[in-house]
Amino acid sequence: MVRTIAASMALMASALVVPQVAHAESKAEATDAIPMPELTIYHLEGRRSERVVWLMEELGLPYKLEYVRGDLFASMAKVRSLGHEMPMVPTVVIGDQILVESGAIIQTIQNRYAPGKLAPARDSKFYAEHLMWMHFAEGSLAARLFSDYRAWRTTPPTVRSRFVDSEAVVQYSENYLAKNPWFGGPEFSSADIMMMFPLNVATGLNLVDEKKFPNIAAWKEKIRARPAYKRMLAAARPDGMIGNLPPVSQRPPSERK
């Protein structure tokens, strides 16, 4: 009986050790960068593919940029030549894998090739907020902006929406920046890379009045001063915006009060 109890205790002790080893391995997995294969970004000037170029510049990682300067149709032809069933930008080829969706591409690059960089620590209270803004940028902000843009271009609005509209999603962003210097907390992160495009759309297409959002305006100025952002512009938008969409002529009257 004594030997049976001792054996049982030994088995229990060994069972306790296994999760600790596994935890150590998973922790190492989360912090060790994987060697990065050749990475090619298929790009259209002034579009979401700028995010991936900017990320690579911030991280100092090598990349190849494919586009035809000043010709959106020729640049898009390069994307279609890949034969992928979803021709869109950004399209990124990493090794032999073709990926779309800027948020997923950015998180893949960070998690595999630059773990721990441009993101709060996972045990930080800001990690969840950083991740929220990473997804809010497209899932709520850009989706609402372009929906309003299409509607307001054909039928100029006369009143604010009783639900969520462009001003509401931009105001939510403004309120966060009133309490935090960056999206996702005290440090610049990939959430800021994700948020720049839709917030430029909001003001550039006249969907909101930029003067009503001073925190966003100040945040944009900090972004424009970053060396990596300037390098991105030089590489990915050397002639400024190409093929601009026309701004809306009218916003809901209450926005202009």
Task: Throw out a few tags for this protein.
mainly alpha; globular; 4-stranded mixed sheet; single chain; about 260 residues; Glutathione S-transferase Yfyf (Class Pi), Chain A, domain 2; about 55% helix
Notes on the protein architecture:
This protein has a domain of 131 residues: Glutathione S-transferase Yfyf (Class Pi), Chain A, domain 2 (Up-down Bundle), CATH 1.20.1050. Strands 2-1-3-4 form a four-stranded mixed sheet. The chain has 257 residues and is mainly alpha-helical. Helix 2 packs across helix 9 and helix 5 packs parallel to helix 7. Helices cover 54% and strands 6% of the residues. Strand 1, helix 2 and strand 2 form a beta-alpha-beta unit. The protein contains nine helices and four strands.
Give a brief description.
The protein has 257 residues and is mainly alpha-helical. 54% of the residues lie in helices and 6% in strands.
